[in-house]
Amino acid sequence: MSEPAEQPESVKGWTRLTRRRDVLDDPYIHRYQRRHFFFFDILPAIGTVAAVALSWVWPPGPIEGSLLLGLWLVTGFGVTVGYHRLFTHRSFSAAPWVQALLAVSGSMAGQGSVISWVALHRRHHELSDQPGDPHSPNLHGQDPVGRLRGLLHAHLLWMRQHEYPNVVCYASDLLRDRSLLQVNGLYLWWVLLGLAIPALVGWWLHGHVAGLLLGFLWGGAVRMFVLGNIIWSINSFLHSFGPRLFATREHSRNSGWLALASFGESWHNNHHAFPTSASFGLDWYRLDPGYWLIWLLARLGLAWDVKVPSEEQIRLKRA
Ligand SMILES: [Zn+2]
Ligand SMILES: [Zn+2]
């Protein structure tokens, strides 16, 4: 009889998973996380610097502005309405093709594949600002250095390498959705599509190859950099600074300043108080573009079972 061969790292990780069911700490996954961090979080920042530097030669015009705005809207709504409010919290139901479209447009943001994102975010809600929260700014000490380290960790650095929530525990509902699994498996292709579309449109509208580079930079890299930082600000600043409407157990905050730019995500304390609410603003005067889109989809008959708390529930929780 021969000795059993050394198990590959992925199998070792799976063995550890069976002992510790909620997260997977595996070198193979960490390697993927570091690559993802470099390509989709660091390179867009470098691309943004390049786009600004190139402005001396090729200043961005209406084409670049439209590509930046258009792709930012598509991917931003994809993340907040699709990834977050639909797939993570099931705050409404939608037609299958609407679900697929939201999953694809969210994937194009480059913030992770839909099932991984959902698992990470559900773990954030489960352990908010406690050990195990993937991106809390409040676990690095209360002195100024600790606060700064916490903000940097929550904003960006946690993505370099982190415990991977077991999707069987955290997103088993999504694993039963075959079309969503297909969208999930093609994640890298959707990110590339989100870069190819502005590059090709820029080339076509400008009529020369420089247009391809400008479209790629402004509609791709700059758009990813801007949207990424807005999303990460929710994790960092909105678990640190700002008013609270509800005395929730974690340190979530609200921000009116970021409401439009974050598609309503900045009503983060409201969201922690009512995670399954499709509306994060909870009232008409708190701007919430994500909820406006869900409202529109419902009016068109493309979304239903839209969950929002009653005035009584809100009043009771505020008390
Ligand atoms: Zn939070
Ligand atoms: Zn959430």
Strand order of the largest sheet: 1-3
Low-confidence stretches: 1-20
The number of distinct helices, counting runs of at least 4 residues, comes to: 14
Work out the number of β strands. 4
Which percent range describes the beta-strand content? under 5%
What pattern of helices and strands is seen along the backbone? HEHHEHHHEHHHHHHHEH
Task: Enumerate the distinct ligands.
Answer: zinc ion
Derived structural class: mainly alpha
**What best-fitting shape do the alpha-carbon axes yield?**
globular
Q: Biggest β-sheet: count, sense, barrel?
A: 2 strands, antiparallel
In the residues, how many domains can be counted?
Answer: 1
Transmembrane segments: 37-59, 65-86, 187-205, 212-234
Main location: membrane
GO molecular function: oxidoreductase activity, acting on paired donors, with oxidation of a pair of donors resulting in the reduction of molecular oxygen to two molecules of water
Organism: Gloeobacter violaceus (strain ATCC 29082 / PCC 7421)
Quick synopsis:
60% of the residues lie in helices and 3% in strands. The protein has helices at residues 9-19, 27-54, 62-88, 96-107, 114-126, 144-155, 167-170, 172-175, 178-185, 187-206, 209-236, 268-273, 289-299, 311-318; strands at 23-24, 93-94, 164-165, 303-304.
